[in-house]
Amino acid sequence: MVKLFCAIVGVAGSAFEVDIDEGQKVGDLKKAIKDQSDGLITVPWPKLQLFLAKTDDGGWLSSLTEDVKKLKKGEKTVFIEALTQEEQELQAEDPLEGVLYGMDPPSARQIHVLVVVPEQWTFAPIVSDGGVFDHCISGAATVD
The whole model's pTM is what? Predict the structure, then answer.
């Protein structure tokens, strides 16, 4: 069992820990992150994008750095943007032990996983004749 500290990129106060067996896959980690996010994440778990929070020298991102301090405030620095580039995304079918291979064991005062959540569906009123559709889902696909 490994304890990973995760942070949702762009969401203030969203750092939390997740316990998971290293023998599981990244997809299982996505499920665990959603389940243990205390309601912060409402999109389906397969939509989550995960990235290792590691420094240029291959170590874990320290909670004492300015990048992490800003991350915890919901800000995204150039370094965090670089870590969350598409080609760095962890794949659901990858085993965690392979992803973590060669890394120091995770410990306190570190961030281990950066979580990018796609825009979540929101409910917004729309104008309709007689109010029939006043609370339809915004962002729903339409055909022109």
Answer: 0.81
Rounded distance between C-alpha atoms, residue 8 and residue 48, angstroms: 10
What is the secondary structure of the chain as a DSSP string? Answer: -EEEEEEETT-TT-EEEEEE-TTSBHHHHHHHHHHHSTTS--S-GGG-EEEE-B-TTSPBEETTSHHHHHHHTT---HHHHHHT-GGGPPPTTSBHHHHSTTSPPP-SSEE-EEEE-PPPPEE-----GGGTTTTPEET-----
Q: Which domains does the chain have, with CATH numbers?
A: 2-138 (3.10.20.90)
Report the alpha-carbon distance of residue 90 to residue 100 in Å, rounded: 11
Radius of gyration, alpha carbons of the chain: 18
Q: pLDDT tens, 25-50?
A: 999 999 999 999 998 999 999 999 99
Query: Measured between alpha carbons, how far is 24 from 32 in angstroms, rounded to an integer?
Result: 11
Please choose, from the candidates 119, 91, 79, the residue with its C-alpha nearest in 3D space to the C-alpha of residue 25.
Answer: 91
Q: Are 92 and 46 in contact, with CB atoms under 8 Å apart? A: yes
